[in-house]
Specification:
9 helices; mainly alpha
Length: 158
């Protein structure tokens, strides 16, 4: 923090990241997560929203696994401050983090169905399908239908 406040945000960020990694090795996971949350705040200050959100996701996962509700609320508040939606409070990731409907939609995407075709098959509106896909992409941290199809095949969901 001292280096950051001294006018060198890049070096300050690098040192904060190194400190968090060192604490994770000890392991002092809660302390590392708090430092990462501070790092996220500093990254947001210099306009690196993507880096900030990436760090906040790591912190969020740690505090969800720990059941640290107060720390989790602080982290979720920071997501909102940087204009990002906080992740679900569940501790599950990957296919286990998807709802039954999201799994259905993922399998239909893997079989190369369009949003309109998926909507017809499941008696939904195309916009609802789009919303589900957006949620799936966030949960799985992927960005394309192709990546989703690969995920479905790799996980044996089809």
């Amino acid at each position: 923090m001292v280096i950051w406040l001294g006018g060198d945000p890049e070096q300050g960020a690098a040192m904060m990241r190194e400190a968090a990694e060192a604490l994770e090795e000890v392991p002092m996971i809660p302390d590392a997560a708090r430092i990462r949350r501070q790092l996220a705040g500093r990254l947001a200050e210099i306009g690196d929203t993507e880096g900030s959100v990436r760090e906040l996701r790591r912190v969020h996962d740690v505090f969800v696994r720990m059941g640290a509700d107060k720390e989790l609320e602080k982290t979720r508040g920071m997501f909102r401050e940087v204009g990002a939606r906080p992740p679900a409070r569940t501790g599950t990731t990957g296919a286990a983090g998807l709802t039954a409907r999201e799994r259905e939609i993922a399998m239909l995407v893997a079989s190369r169905k369009s949003n309109k075709a998926i909507a017809r098959a499941l008696s939904l509106s195309p916009r609802t399908v789009s919303t589900h896909l957006s949620n799936i992409f966030k949960k799985l941290e992927i960005g394309t239908r192709g990546e989703l199809a690969d995920f479905v095949r790799d996980q044996g969901l089809s």
